[in-house]
Amino acid sequence: MGDRSGGRCDAAAARAWRAAAVPGLRARAGVATTLAENATMRALLDGSPAVATVVRSDGRVEMPQRMADWLGIPAPRYLMDLAGEESGLSPEDAAALTADVTAAQRSGRPFVRAVRPVGSTRAITLRGARAPGAMGATGSILIWAFDATDSESEIKRLGTETARLGAAYEALTGLIEAAPLPMWYRARDLRLSMVNSAYVAAVEGQDAQDVVARGLELVEGSGRGGPLAGAAAAREQGGRTSRSCPRRSTGPVGRSRSMTSRSRRVA
C-alpha cells in the first residue's frame, strides 16, 4: 500500500509541475518571439530612409540618436532644444516647426516642412501628423524625417539646366527672328514650329502664330512630296539637303524670282 500511495503522490506532483511549468514555458516562448520581432522592427527602422520622432503634448521630444546626428546636436528633451547657433535648426526653422506642431495638436492638420541644419549641406523634409491612438500618445505628434539632400541637389541641377536651355532657346529665337531671309524650324512631326518675321511676310500671314497654326509653307508643292519630303530626307540622311524651287512673284521691277529651299536635319 505504501508503494502505491507513494506512486500516486509522485504522479500528482508531476501533473502539478506540468500544470505550472507549461504556461511558464509558453510565456517564455512568447517573450522570446516578441523580442525577436522587436529586434527585427528596430533593424528595419534603423535601415529605413525615414526617421521617426515623437513630440508629446507637453513639448517633450522622443528622438532617436540617428535624427540627432542629422541635426548635429545631442538628443533633445524639448522642441526648444532643436535650435542652435552652430548646429541644430536655425531659430526661424525651430520656431516654424513649433508652430506646425502646435497647429497639428490643436486641429489635427498634418504638415510638411523643409529644413536645413545650421552649418550643414543636408536637406531634411519633415512630415508630421497626430500620432496613432495605438501608440497611447494622446495629443502627441509623430514626425517622419527624410534625408532629401540628393533630391534637393537634383532639383537644383535640373533648375540650372532648365535656365541654361531657356537662355539658349531665347538666343536662338532672337537670331532667327533677326535674319533678313525667311527661316523656320520644324518639330519632330515635321510640322512648322517656329518662323521668323521674314517668313511671315513671304507667305503673307498675319503673324508667326497664325502661320504656324495654319501650316503655311513657303514653297508649296515643289519637287516630289513638297517641302515636307525635303525635311524628311534631311532627317533620314542626318545632313543638309538643298533644292531650287522657282516661285513666281513680282518684285519692284516686275521680274520673276527663284528661291532656294534648304532643309537641315531635325534633331
What's the oligomerization state? single chain
Proportion in β-strands: 15-25%
Give the C-alpha Rg.
Answer: 38 Å
Give the low-pLDDT segments: 248-267
Q: Estimate percent helicity.
A: 40-55%
**Biggest sheet descriptor:** 5 strands, antiparallel
Number of helices: 7
Mean pLDDT: 77
Q: How are the strands ordered across the major sheet?
A: 2-1-5-4-3
Shape descriptor: elongated
Return the structural class: alpha+beta
In total, the number of strands is 9
- How far the N terminus sits from the C terminus, by CA atoms, comes to 109 Å
Q: Which series of helices and strands comes N to C?
A: HEEHHEEEHEEHHHEE
Commentary on this structure:
The chain has 267 residues and is of the alpha+beta class. Helix content is 47%, strand content 18%. It contains 7 helices and 9 strands. It has helices at residues 2-47, 65-71, 91-107, 149-178, 197-202, 208-214, 226-237, and strands at residues 50-55, 61-62, 111-115, 124-130, 141-147, 184-186, 192-195, 241-247, 257-263.
Secondary structure topology:
Layout: H1 2-47, E1 50-55, E2 61-62, H2 65-71, H3 91-107, E3 111-115, E4 124-130, E5 141-147, H4 149-178, E6 184-186, E7 192-195, H5 197-202, H6 208-214, H7 226-237, E8 241-247, E9 257-263
Antiparallel strand pairs: 1-2, 1-5, 3-4, 4-5, 6-7, 8-9
Name its key features.
7 helices; 18% strand; 5-stranded antiparallel sheet; 267 residues; disordered C terminus; alpha+beta
